[in-house]
What we know:
mainly alpha, globular
Amino acid sequence: MNSAVSTGTTAGTSGTPGTAQGPAGRAAPGPRTVPGRTPLRAGPVSAVWRPRAVLVPLALALLLAAAIVVNTARGTSALPLGEVAEVLLGGGERTSQIVVMRLRLPRSLTGALVGAALGLAGAIIQGIARNPLASPDILGITTGAGVGAVTVIVFGGAYGGLSGPLADLGVPAAAVAGALLAALAVYVLAVRRGLSGYRVLLVGVGVNAVLASVLSWLLIKADIVDAGRALIWLNGSLNGVGWDTVRPVGWTLAVLLPVALVLSFPFGALVFDEDTARGLGVPMTGSRAALLLTAVLLTATATAAAGPIAFVALACPQIALRLARTGHPPLLASALTGAAVTVWADVLARTAFPDIQLPVGILTAALGAPYLLYLIVRSGKARS
């Protein structure tokens, strides 16, 4: 909409019929509109149509679908993109079906689900802290999940010395417990005198440093085999994942993504100060606790599935924020951005060097570290 304010017309001292009159016979200004938002009204029901809120997630979903197809096609024996698409639609040759469905598609889907969980968790934490530098990586939540998982690997041998179904639950359960404890420590220490974005950030950095020291001690205590296994996991890798990894991450995201979208109204109110949010009828303590628990569970699930994949939760919400042009990181767009970035990073990690497949976490760290420095410099300029 080109004009932001619509006004009536006047004729002499009397306005046209149906036009509101100002104090001097001038037409009163009409309703103010915001560019990019179209008000919709049907009787007592009103809403706002935001084209970007729909078009951006659709574009990101197409980018994610393209990444999954490309990542599935690339490998030691490359497949044509058309053949991969045919297999995904239920056709194709038997050999191509085995390569796609059993070997490569689970890796791509795991990367998409893990990236979506991290992107969504990062958007929630940045909204709660009201700070673009806040993320599970910086605040120690990811490191807490790593400490829990590595503790099981180191002190119990392969997955705690368990076997059968308990072996599959050992590392994920420990990762969830470690992430919850780290988040609880940050929350308790940061909200003692009211929530401040920089206080949350500083407390999180301190908790992260302590947990990183514990992680280093665990690796020193471990024998060479367990330490090697833990180091591979800590780099964040999608190598060797299968459908048994896709299912738990998929079910977790299927439950927590709708929960996060239901909490999107109180999440949007958290960008205001305490008094304004309470005036809007948002229960601050309960909303923060529910959102933080959702973010922690998403982070722990993603970390347990693929290890700590760095900087996805930090950068992707900010990318989605700039694409959607909203006042806070958009939840759905952040999830789709995280999924697309993770899968495309895995494509580069698998194909950048012909003789080696890098862990995806190494590539996201190499790409995300300069972005972190940019955010720090920009934040310092904004404060000064």
